[in-house]
Design goal:
alpha+beta, 2 helices, 23% helix
């Protein structure tokens, strides 16, 4: 299983993720929000069913200036 983990408190609201991958990311107030995610404490988690979705979120993670978007593949942290 693939997973996106958004460390919401660390987000600075630069908007790169929402600009690059609007099907998964939106700006809400001063921070980004991962659409369809479940809150786990102050973090947002979203399981990804397709490899394409993982690749798209990798773009968002690589563009994040504070590295608050993390991707996991088969239980292993990739970024």
């Amino acid at each position: 299983m693939h997973l996106v983990d958004h460390d919401h408190p660390t987000c600075i609201g630069c908007g790169a993720c929402a600009a690059l991958v609007p099907e998964f990311w939106v700006m809400e107030g001063e921070k980004a929000h991962l659409l369809g995610s479940a809150k786990v404490g102050e973090r947002e988690h979203l399981p990804l069913e397709k490899e394409e979705h993982f690749s798209r979120n990798m773009e968002a993670a690589e563009a994040c200036p504070v590295n608050c978007i993390h991707l996991h593949k088969s239980g292993q942290k990739v970024i």
